[in-house]
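Form P-L/3: holo structure prediction, ligand magnesium ion.
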Amino acid sequence: LTSRIQTAMKNLSGKGKVSEGDLDETLREIRLALLEADVNLKIARSFIAQVREKALGAKVLEGLNPSEQIIKIVNDQLTDMMGAQAVPLNKSPKIPTVIMMAGLQGAGKTTTVAKLANKLKNDNHARPLLIAADVYRPAAIEQLQTLGRQLSIPVFDQGTDVDPRQIVKDGLKQADQEKNDYVFIDTAGRLQIDELLMQELKDIEKIAKPDEILLTVDAMTGQNATETAQGFNDALGITGVVLTKLDGDTRGGAALSIREVTGKPIKFVGEGEKVTDLDVFYPDRMASRILGMGDILSLIEKTQKDVDAKQAAAQLQKLQENSFDFNDFLDQLKQVQNMGPMEDMLKMIPGMANNAALAQVQVGPKDFAHMEAIVYSMTPAERLDPELLSPARRRRIAAGSGRPVIDVNKMIKQFKQMRQMMYKFTNGKGGLPAGMEDM
Ligand code: GDP
Ligand code: MG
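OUTPUT (holo model):
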């Protein structure tokens, strides 16, 4: 329940006119959301400065619906910075197109080779050859061979005793003979960037003259992903990036940072371990993901599945009357709490399996106890009307519940987010949430 933007936007919406102060407050929230999504601090700052300029320039402050305008500016700006459009793989005018992989150990190079080769084979009837040039772990060669067998794609290997440079030479020779149209070179990685690895990669590059040097970066490594990308780009000169493990609970802010720092396009994203879990990188989708729009929506959608029907109906009615209060909030939290690990359940919803925002909506048992304590420290009147919660009252509630004021504020924010989302649900064009249609 940490979608800052939702709250920030809520604070803005409803006001016909927004002051510069309001704008800055909103932008501060957006900056925090970016940082939470692992966007590099410097980049988040410059991003916000650009958005601010655009927002002021666009006379948003006098607009009728400023919140929508600002979110659009933010979204557009994010999308633009990530390249605006999907960038395809480079292609050589004459066969074969050579694609060389690079990246740290475990980043997903070998998996991505299989995914890409399989995609080319299926989409373009390509006849790829995979070269196993990671000779440091026998398991790495076996891994590529196994994938090749599964996909009926040939793999060239010479075991672990031959120098990878020689393997690449011989592999390319075979590709010439067999007239393979694509060659993928699966290289070794290290835990960290080091001289030896870079030298080997540079040598392979000289030999293979690849059309594409694809850097594979693990999105789960957060801020480190940016450093890794910069390191490889400086030393090797990459041509594109594959961001893997986006099925994890990361917001993907690395995508923005990597693009900014290297200037190289992110071409694909990995969204799972299976060979089909690969997607073209769409900057606009990633922008939404970074901003975390819709995470509250997911929570509510999920909650509806397990919610006691009667209670839900009663809540729905309250919501329609816009009278969702803290007591209902507490009930909601309890229901969420009773459902078990949020991720597990959300995975069952079509299209939800890859929603990285899920982890954000998790409420642990301790969090729940704290929230409960806070609500119990409110007077009945306060529970029914959150607008009563002045700073002085918040301090009193904090003292009463034994929680810091910051927690009280956070919970009130979360309450408002939930209320707003539920209000949208019940009044929006989307109709009733799943499972509640027949009530
Ligand atoms: P390499 O050392 O760079 O070749 O990395 P691998 O291709 O061997 O991948 C390391 C691990 O990450 C393996 O267990 C893969 O199954 C897993 N992996 C790779 N890409 C993804 C992805 O997009 N999502 C998930 N969940 N796992 C991935
Ligand atoms: Mg590998």
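COMMENT: The two ends are 27 Å apart (CA to CA).
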